[in-house]
């Protein structure tokens, strides 16, 4: 079993990865013309969710050079 399973398993995993890569490449090529056409237009859409920068965080240290913020609470709405 140590020899019988890895050989077809390797082939299976390789083919799945190749197929997924081809699918991602084809969808990217299909989306590229629409993206190039829409590139010069301004998007007038409001964001769906509040920015996470407004949420509370375990560490929120703001200084004049660089703001340090990590362990952000993503489960509550923004404070703004």
Explain what the structure shows:
Helix content is 41%, strand content 12%. It is an alpha+beta fold and 80 residues long. The chain is built from 1 helix and 2 strands, in the order H-E-E. It has a two-stranded antiparallel ribbon. It folds into 2 domains: 1-44; 46-80, no CATH class.
Outline of the structure:
This protein has 80 residues and is of the alpha+beta class. The protein contains 1 helix and 2 strands.
Helix percentage range: 40-55%
Low-confidence stretches: none
Strand order of the largest sheet: 1-2
- Biggest pleated-sheet summary: 2 strands, antiparallel
Give the termini separation: 59 Å
What's the number of domains? 2
| CA gyration radius, whole angstroms | 23 Å
**Helix- and strand-based class?**
alpha+beta
Number of helices, where a helix is a run of at least 4 consecutive DSSP H or I residues: 1
Order of helices and strands: HEE
> How many beta-strand segments?
2
Which characteristics define this entry?
80 residues; alpha+beta; 2 domains; 41% helix
Give me the secondary-structure topology.
Elements: H1 6-38, E1 57-61, E2 68-72
Antiparallel strand pairs: 1-2
